[in-house]
Amino acid sequence: MAVKIQTEYGEIELTNEVIATVVGGAATDNYGVVGMASKNQIRDNISEILKKENYTKGVIVRQEGDGVAVDAYIVVLYGTKISEISRNVQIQVKYNLEKMLGFAAEQVNVFVQSVRVLND
């Protein structure tokens, strides 16, 4: 699926990979987010934190009506307030999509896949 944006010069088509990279970057820039996680850890056989090139495995983009819904799967830091982290991720993802790609997400759903303790 791709998101299509109509401009005065023509149509722009954004692929899921582009949107997932922006969403993953926005999510991981928040304090308390250790990284992105795979949405299907068992099927993908990935239990570790995803790197930038694999953000598409941790983000789902859906077309809903006239808008776009985004699901982000994250790993959070132990001892942080999960509700605040999730809210901050939602705000940051919406902002980055609007500023970088020129469209707003109707929904940003955040799923916490695990909690990690970072060793010093």
UniProtKB/TrEMBL annotation:
* Classification via Pfam families: Asp23
Q: Which InterPro entries match?
A: Asp23
Report the family membership.
Belongs to the asp23 family.
The molecule here is called Asp23/Gls24 family envelope stress response protein
**Protein source organism:** Candidatus Jeotgalibaca merdavium
Give the source lineage, highest ranks first. Answer: Bacteria, Bacillati, Bacillota, Bacilli, Lactobacillales
